[in-house]
Amino acid sequence: MPESKLANLDVAVIGAGPTGLMLACELAMRGVRVSVLERRQESTNITRAFAIHARTLELLDSRGLVDDVLKRGFAVGSVAPVPGATVSLAEELRVRYPFILMVPQSGTEHVLAARAERLGVRVIRGAEVAGLEQDLNQRNGGVDITLGNGERVRAGYVVGCDGAHSAVRRLLNIDFVGKQYATHIMLADVRLTRPPEELMFARTNNEGVVLVLPFGDGWYRAIVWDRLREQEPLSTPVSMADINDALGRIAGEEDPSDPVPPGLPTLTEKP
């Protein structure tokens, strides 16, 4: 089995998401030899997570990263859960950043990856972890990592930061304790023909819950919980028509003369 071109590492971090990249940066600041192994060949432009809260912004500020992240996002300082009722985060949160920053996870990853590079961290893409074996024979121990291409990497420690479907957890037979939350939450990144007036559009009624959140670049994240879909299998595909129908029933105003009620966000692109 071929040896990897990577030198032996103090720590191998598996997963180049925000958690893995931030951890690698923190370790590198303390002189630890660390590399990040990432299954994906390219950095992603997929939204995935979409918001950073006040305390996380403070932590990013402590590392000199907050300005770069703020440039990539859109601050939301209030939310109106029902018409006529607005919650001001600036009044409720007595903190340095009294807002929610709407920013795609891909933007956060780009900022953290750039910092990791400046600190000398290697982010190895296309490095899928296929095997882990702890060496109990040598005095200092360590972990042998087998990659999908057959290469082997030796690290003193391995940290799994590879998400909900973690290969590290699977290879170590560590259970993901809990039960599946068997309900339908529909997510879609969309452009709107009629954007809402509120920065954070939120509506709820007996039919379900709707949130529409801006990214600041013309794209929005629509989050919909629709009671009518509760009996559908979770594997049932979601269409643009499904999202629009749910928006109309949950967030719309009953006006038979207007197929698109005033103030109701409507989609122009498929989720």
From TrEMBL:
Keywords for the protein's UniProt record, in alphabetical order: Oxidoreductase
InterPro entries hit by this protein: FAD-bd, FAD/NAD-bd_sf, PheA/TfdB_FAD_monoxygenase
Matching Pfam families: FAD_binding_3 (PF01494)
GO molecular function: FAD binding; oxidoreductase activity
Record carries keyword Nuclease: no
Disordered: annotated span: 248-271
Entry protein name: FAD-binding domain-containing protein
Source organism of this protein record: Mycobacterium asiaticum
Lineage of producing organism: Bacteria, Bacillati, Actinomycetota, Actinomycetes, Mycobacteriales
